[in-house]
Amino acid sequence: QVQLVESGGGLVQAGGSLRLSCAASGRTFTNYVMGWFRQGTGKEREFVAIITWNRGSTVYADSVKGRFTISRDVAKNTVYLQMNRLKPEDTAVYYCAATMYYSGSDYHNYDYWGQGTQVTVSS
To answer: CA–CA separation, 40 vs 30, rounded Å?
Structure first.
């Protein structure tokens, strides 16, 4: 059974940085795509970034490109999201997700989800 556990959220001032972690367990993640999504209050869940487990190829939402970096540590079965130059509009619950056979931004196609971690950016 796949488990994804996020950590690293918190309160930060605008312009600051946070690093989120997603510890994955339950199977080998070869051929999986790992993603970060976020959901602000009253908003639909939205794509942030994805990374392929095998090659480490990445895709970012335009809103975070150049500020956020997704990475993975295969030995630790962990995916990271380094968030720099944070803005108040980045405030949301951030979720880690995983899927096979899909490498896009539609959250409906992700099969496994973590419980989420709150990121709050104050102005």
So the answer is: 31
Residue 7 and residue 63 in contact, taking contact as beta carbons nearer than 8 Å:
no
Q: What is the pLDDT of residues 81-108, one digit of tens each?
A: 999 999 999 999 999 999 998 889 999 9
CA distance readout (Å), 91 to 13, 18, 37, 102: 11, 12, 12, 27
Check if the beta carbon of residue 4 is closer than 8 Å to that of residue 97.
yes
pLDDT number for residue 22: 98
pLDDT tens track for 18-28: 999 999 999 98
Q: Is 107 left (phi over 0), alpha (psi -120 to 50) or beta?
A: alpha
